[in-house]
Amino acid sequence: MALWSGRFEEGVSEFTQRFGASLPVDKALYAQDIAGSKAHSAMLANQGVISQEDKEQIHQGLDAIQKRIEAGDFVWDINNEDIHMSVESELIAAIGDAGARLHTGRSRNDQVCTDTRLYAKQRAKDLMAANLSLREALLDQAQKHFDVVLPGYTHLQHAQPVLFSHHMLAYVWMLTRDFHRLEEAMNAADANPLGSAALAGTTYPLDRFQTAETLGFSRVIPNSLDAVSDRDFLLDLMYACSVSCIHLSRLCEEIILWSTSEFGFVTLSDSFSTGSSIMPQKKNPDFAELIRGKSGRVVGDLVALLVTMKSLPLAYNKDLQEDKEGAIDAAKTLEDCYVCAAGMISTMTIHPDAMMAQTKKGYLEATDLADYLAKKGLPFRKAHEVSGHLVLLCEKRGCTLADLTLDDLKAECDLFESDVAAVLDLRSIAAARTTYGGTGNEAVKVQLQEALAAFEADSAKLG
Ligand code: ARG
C-alpha cells in the first residue's frame, strides 16, 4: 500500500501504478533526495519538532539506504511511485517510528523540487567543466595552427581569406557564452523551496534558512506557491543546453564539410570515424554527424517542458512530474557531445596546403583591390565597380586576379601602379585586417589572449 493510502479503499491497477510512477526516471536523484531528507530532519531536530535521537536514527538509516543504492543492493519497487516514497518507505521499514516522523512539515511537492534543484545545480556545474574541455581543444588547435589561412565564406561562397585560428576562436566565443548561460542556469536553480510543504507553508516552526545553508542553496524562495510550481530553472538549463547543442551542430557541420574530398581541409582521426559495411574505402565522420543530430533531441526536451508548463494553474500539478526526464536527458546528451567533440577536435589533422589552395579560387582579393583604389582617392562605390569588372575579365579568361598584368589593371583604371602586387598577396590580405576582432594576425593574437583569459577565469570558477 502507498504511503498515502489512508483515505483509499481500493488500490490502483498495475497499469495505472506504472503509468503514474516516476521512479524509473527520478531514482537518478537518490543522492539529492537523501541529502534533502537529512537536512530537513536535522532542522526538525534543531527546532525541537523531532528529538535528536530520532534525527540520529534517520541519518543512520538514510546513510545505510544510500550505501545499498550505490552498491546495487537496493530493490526498486514500482509500488513506491517515486524516489521520495521509495526512500521513505524503506526508512520506515528499517527504523520504524523515527522514520515515520521524517515527513513532518514536508510534502513531496517541496521535496521534489528541492531534489531537482540540487540535481540541476550539479549538472550545470558538470556541463561547465565539460564545456571547458572542448574550449581547451579548440584553443589548442588555434594556437598550433595560428598562421594557417583558409577562405572565409559567406553564403558558403569564397569571401575573404581568414586565419584558421580566427575561425576556431569564433567557436571558442560561442562556447564561452554557453558556459555563462550554464552558469546562469546554475544560479537559477540555487534557491531553496524546502519548507514550502504542499503549497502554503506549514504550522511547524521550520527554519528554511537553515536547510538552505545545509544544502548549499544561496537563497530561499520567498513564496511557497511559486516554490513548488516553478520549473524555470529547468527551462533555463535546457535552454542553455539547446543553444550549446546548436553551436556544436554548426561546428560539426563544418567538420563534416571540411573532411569531404571536395574540401580536404581536415582529416578526422580513425578513433572518431567509422567505416561502411559495404564500401571498403569509406571513412565516415559519424560522430560529428551524431553530435549535429543530437541537437534535435535536446531542443525537443526544452520544447516539451515549455509546452507542459503552459497554462498550468498554481500550485503543484502532476503534469510537473514530466519535468525531469527531458532535463536529465538534455544534460547527459550535451555532456556526451562535449566529450566527443573535444576528442574529435583535439585529434583531427589540419591540412594547411589544401586550405591555402582554396584561397586561390573565388577572387578573394577583390575587396582589397577595391580598397587599394579607394585609398588612392577613388570613391569606394566606383572602386567596387572597377574590381567587379576585373573579376569578370578573369572569369572570361579563366584566370585569377593575381594573373592579371599591370596593363590589364591600368586598362580598367589608371590609378593602379606596381605597388598593387603587395595587396594581392592572400596572407597580407588577411594580416591587413587589423581592426579589433578582425582576422589580422596581430588582432587575432589579442583575441587569443582574451579567449585564454576568459578560459582561465571560467576555470577558476569551478575551483
Ligand atoms: N513524483 C512526483 C514528481 O515527480 C513527486 C511529487 C508528487 N506530489 C504529489 N502530490 N503527487 O513530480
Identify the bound ligands: arginine
What characterizes the major β-sheet? Answer: 2 strands, antiparallel
* CA-atom Rg in angstroms: 30 Å
Proportion of strand residues: under 5%
Report the total helices. Answer: 20
- Cα end-to-end separation: 46 Å
Q: Low-confidence runs (pLDDT<50, min 5 residues)?
A: none
Q: Helicity level, as a percent range?
A: 55-70%
The ordered H/E elements are: HHHHHHHEEHEHEHHEHHEHHHHHHH
| Strand line-up in the sheet with most strands | 1-2
- Please count the beta strands (DSSP E, at least 2 residues each): 6
SS class = mainly alpha
What general outline do the C-alpha atoms trace?
elongated
Q: Overall mean pLDDT score?
A: 96
Describe the structure.
It is a single chain. The protein has 463 residues and is mostly helical. The chain is 63% helix and 5% strand. It contains 20 helices and six strands. It has helices at residues 14-20, 23-26, 30-46, 52-71, 83-95, 97-100, 108-144, 164-189, 208-215, 224-229, 232-258, 286-309, 323-347, 352-359, 366-375, 380-397, 406-412, 420-423, 426-431, 441-462; strands at residues 149-154, 157-163, 191-192, 219-220, 266-267, 349-350. The strands form three sheets. A two-stranded antiparallel sheet has the order 1-2. Helix 3 crosses helix 7 (108-144). The protein is elongated. It starts with 13 loop residues before the first helix and ends with a helix. The mean pLDDT is 96. Arginine binds at residues 22, 26, 82, 108-109, 112, 316, 318, 320-321.
